[in-house]
Amino acid sequence: MNSLIEQQVAEIGIEAYLDQHHHKSLLRFLTCGSVDDGKSTLIGRLLHDSHQIYEDQLAAIYTDSQKVGTTGDKPDLALLVDGLQAEREQGITIDVAYRYFSTKKRKFIIADTPGHEQYTRNMATGASTCDVAVILIDARKGVLDQTRRHSYIASLLGIRHFIVAINKMDLVGFDEERFTSIRDEYLEFAEKLNKNIEIKLVPLSALDGDNVVSLSEQTPWYKGDSLLTLLEDVDFVQEQESSDFRFPVQYVNRPNLDFRGFAGTIASGLVKVGDKVKALPSGKMSTIDRIVTFDGDLPEAYSGQAITLTLKDEIDISRGDTIVAADDDVPLSNNLLADIVWMAEAPLEVGRQYDIKVAGKKTVGSVQGIRHQVDINNLETFTTETLPLNGIGLCEVVLNEAIAVDAYQNSIDTGGFIIIDRLTNVTVGAGMVREALIDKTVVSTGDFSAFEIEFNALVRKHFPHWNADDISKLLG
Ligand SMILES: Nc1nc2c(ncn2[C@@H]2O[C@H](COP(=O)(O)OP(=O)(O)OP(=O)(O)O)[C@@H](O)[C@H]2O)c(=O)[nH]1
């Protein structure tokens, strides 16, 4: 058994421990940085110093450190994290790995993403569910392109708390000036990111544990908290609960004529029995009758909870619809302005039909224009006809039907979408809605079927000499 748990159970008893554990808040964070900045070592150090490692695991690490480690006499804690054999042999982290640990105050899930440039898409995958980004910088190297790139993606994906961990301070003699100059350079760059991001910076040595779990004597000039304390104190729960209520319906549950429930997970906000709500896109109103869960009915429920709602009136709601507060003015549109991160080797094709999945709803759409691509090394923009692998651009997307549109920055689940290749069924891109372009609303399924629109696009692409008209434009 692991020693922190053992100690706590001995102090307060198993029942009290489980109860306390159940009520701790859960913080998801992402670690990112360039290759060899020390992510794995840092995560290993967090687990080790917060006593999350089993004795036998620790013994194995001491033995392995002698064989494959890169740390001389010290245990190579990266081995704890870089658990995969292939990865050990290559010495790199190859996919997003999730780890779990807890302290007396909080539970944590870490999304560990690889530092290599071509893995930007993995980072996007890891970041989309995180509350905090821990951005590692090697104190010897300072702010790199990769640092700027990851910070930009994290901000685009809606992360509002950054902890910039300036690592390997032992290799620069724990020099305050080095820390200050990296800090200033980073903060100057960060001015160009979303203004609502809270940024904390901490000097670290992941290898020796300085300022990771407890404050180090090596940095008397540093007046902030240790990394773990910063993570324990991030104030993120409130943000989730203050946002508007969004409930994408995943499944309509009708076991008999007396019960009709709408099952799903609350994407944001909270709902109470008696609340007046409306279903989108129909706009039909009703009142919440019951909030049903496996453990019985609830008087209210919050973001992240899986529930079934029943309503006082029989209104027509199907899978893919969204239930919101009755007085909430959510725009309905089939024309979106969105930041798109392209994740496929084959570039984005303007005009081509893709499957688009928004909050559990699958529809069809295409990118009708790319306003610009962003050079994520310096955040400058430039014009382009297409987006390559890892490219990020501001695009106009046209869907075959109108949907309830949320800005991603307000609601990650209902404002984010994924783009799927219709032939291979592979996810090729991720989009973050900025706004609905209501005035330019064009296509409606009533006029042309998805197949007709796609066929038209294919004809125009492969047989341009036929001079076929673009039917989606005809409709506008
Ligand atoms: N001196 C010193 N070395 C460190 C520190 N943190 C990490 N290292 C060393 O830096 C090297 C890379 O560390 P890793 O933890 O494997 O780096 P990573 O960022 O996870 O790298 P990838 O898994 O390849 O993405 C290893 O040799 C570590 O021992 C530190 O604070 N000080």
Account of the protein in words:
Strands 7, 8, 9, 11, 12, 13, 15 and 16 form an 8-stranded antiparallel sheet that branches. The protein has a 6-stranded mixed sheet with strand order 2-3-1-4-5-6, sandwiched between helices. It is globular. 39% of the residues are buried. Helix 1 (3-12) packs across helix 2 and helix 7 (120-127) packs parallel to helix 8 (145-156). The chain has 14 helices and 23 strands. Mean pLDDT is 81; it is low at 83-94 and 439-446. By secondary structure, the protein is an alpha+beta fold. The structure holds guanosine-5'-triphosphate.
Largest sheet, strands/sense/barrel: 8 strands, antiparallel
The CATH architecture of the largest domain: 3-Layer(aba) Sandwich
Number of domains: 4
What's the total number of strands? 23
Just give the CATH class of the largest domain. Alpha Beta
Rg on CA atoms, Å:
25 Å
| Mean pLDDT over the residues | 81
Could you tell me which ligands this complex binds, including any ions or cofactors? guanosine-5'-triphosphate
Distance between the termini: 66 Å
